[in-house]
Amino acid sequence: MPEEKLEFKWLDVKCVGSDTVVFKLEDEATVKVKVDIERAGKAINFTNPDGTAHYNIGAGIKVTVIPPERRFWVPKSQIHAPPRPSEKPPPTTIT
After folding, report:
1. Please, which residues bridge with residue 64 across strands?
2. Is 37 in contact with 62 (CB distance < 8 Å)?
3. More confidently predicted of 70 and 90
4. DSSP code for 39
5. pTM score above 0.70
6. How far apart, in Å, are the Cα atoms of 18 and each of 1, 23, 34, 65?
C-alpha cells in the first residue's frame, strides 16, 4: 500500500533584516554565517496535532572564517593568468 503523501503550498520567502551574522573570535578571526531559506511550504492536507499549520522549511547555511592575518593561499596551478603579449621591438626611424 502506498504511503500517504502530504501536499504543500510553496511559499515565497523574503528576508527581513540581514541574512548574515558576523562573530569575532578571541584570536581576532572573523566568522560570517549566512542563512538562506531554499524552500518553504505550508501543508495543505495536514495540520499539527494541536491544530496549527504544518510547515516544511529547507534552509542553507554558509560559514566563512576570515583569519586574523587576513591572508590565504592558492596553488599556483589554479591561477589562470592571461598570456603575456609578445614584445615587439621599438620602431626604427630611417633618415
Report:
1. 32
2. no
3. 70
4. E
5. no
6. 46, 14, 9, 18
pLDDT single digits (tens) 10-54? 999 999 999 999 999 999 999 999 999 999 999 999 999 999 999
Beta-bridge partners for 65: 31
Residues 6+ apart with CB under 8 A from 48: 54
Cβ 81 vs Cβ 66: under 8 Å: no
Q: For residue 95, what pLDDT is reported?
A: 60
Cell reading at 80: 589562470
Question: In the chain, how many H helices and how many E strands?
Answer: 0, 4
pLDDT of residue 92: 72
Core vs surface per residue 50-66: b (16+ CB within 10 A) or e: eeeeeeeeeeeeeeeee
Q: Are strands 53-66 and 8-10 parallel, antiparallel or unpaired?
A: unpaired
62, 54, 50: which is closest to 11 by C-alpha?
54
